[in-house]
Please model this.
Amino acid sequence: MTRYKDGLERVDSIRSRLAGNGKFVRGAVFAFLLGVSQGCYVYPTISTAPVPGARLRFELNDRGRVGLGGSLGPSAERLEAVLQADMDSAYSVKMVSVSYLNGQSNRWTGEPLVVSKDYLRNVTVREFSKSRTILTAAAVLGGAVLLIATRGLFGSGTVDTDPPNPNPPGGPSFR
Model:
């Protein structure tokens, strides 16, 4: 910890730990980006027939877990897919992802699947949310301002008037 004349303290050890641990920083950035990317959308229950191309989320009932177990696995809980056609008794979709009861999930790459409407407990549609997008943008902007302010990226314009220590602790010794 470095103490300055005006009494402010700067914690260098935290910065060095974060900078030295690339896995932590990458994980934090990944978690942040994941939250930001999901923050702009909501999934309201569908009230009208969805249009082809809409991104839907299906929550399976017990019959759906059994009926689609051969295609998705026996513990599938929720599907995300892009609607191809809305038929009377089923949805024809291209799969995006499957979430399981144990919390795991799998990404799919557009494989076709027909899902019976009898297999579904709930159907929601992915919609863009202006309010969440504004809040997310404000959070990102606030984070950037905080980063700039705490790292002194613009400088404060003051000069440290203390002379440097000729013999810092643990530093080189010229004898």
Summary: Strands lie at 2-3, 9-10, 41-42, 55-60, 76-86, 90-100, 105-107, 112-116, 120-125, 127-128. The longest strand covers residues 76-86. Residues 94 and 112 are 4 Å apart (CA to CA). DSSP finds five helices and ten strands in the chain.
